[in-house]
Design brief:
Helix content is 80%, strand content 0%. The protein is flat, with a radius of gyration of 16 Å.
Length: 141
């Protein structure tokens, strides 16, 4: 199965509350997407799918009461995209792709913190990052 089929199977299992099976499908999709991104790190569809896989895992962990793991699954793609933005020597196209992806990762993290509050310092940092990527005058350097 390709990653899209694995994600769909995971969603079907999620909707049936078959948590372990859903987790396996989501993790399988993420593994395939990891391999695709190693070959072509600028593949936007793979980046979006990879982020979605982690967000699906996060939702699964919320449903099963594992909030710490849910948060970790949101932080992995967010921190990965932030690392790319800050990485020296990475071409501008790749940084721009990562910059745009942080809008997705930050939105999910901020929504998560509405139900599961975090410390004020971390909240302030996320909000600063969110404002930086969503402001119309924000420039990518």
């Amino acid at each position: 199965m390709n990653w899209q089929q694995l994600m769909t199977k995971g969603n079907d299992c999620f909707n049936q509350q078959a948590w372990q099976q859903a987790q396996g499908y989501y993790e399988g999709a993420i593994e395939q997407l990891d391999a695709m991104l190693l070959e072509n790190p600028k593949q936007v569809e793979a980046i979006q799918g990879w982020i979605c896989g982690y967000h699906n895992l996060s939702a699964l962990h919320v449903k099963t009461g594992n909030v710490v793991e849910a948060q970790r699954c949101l932080l992995i793609p967010h921190q990965s995209m932030m690392h790319l933005i800050e990485q020296e020597g990475l071409d501008d196209d790749h940084k721009l792709i990562a910059f745009r992806a942080t809008k997705i990762t930050l939105t999910a993290l901020l929504e998560f913190t509405q139900d599961f509050p975090i410390c004020q310092s971390c909240s302030d940092r996320l909000m600063t990052q969110y404002l930086a990527v969503t402001q119309p005058e924000s420039r990518f350097h």
